[in-house]
Specification:
The chain contains 1 helix and 8 strands. With 131 residues, the chain is mainly beta.
Length: 131
Amino acid sequence: MSADVHNLDAVFDSFDETWSPRIVAQVNDYDVRVARVRGEHLWHAHTDTDEFFLVLDGEFLIDMRSVDGTETRVELRANDTFVVPKGTEHRPVSPGGARILMFEPQGESTTGDYSGEVPDHIDSTTGHSVV
């Protein structure tokens, strides 16, 4: 990954896919990823890492499920941040669409430990480099 400057508006203008993050920088062993999101992601967890979200614009919801099956929802809007603790089953949702920024360890899949069939609107990836 280069040390180039990346304007986030230009990065977002370079792709239309949802749930398909682009890597805009690397900090130590972490990727800084941005993504367009719309609709529902799938329920998954990241066993070994927390997941940081910053909402750049739009509405972004995170449904979480505790070990006993209790579900809670966190509602985020522009400039809100939230960390999903490692091992927490969660499902990101954005009914009207949003743009988000995430910090995730390099090589961490967007679908975490999920092993089932991934819907076509979700890109199960470790991120795509910005060219």
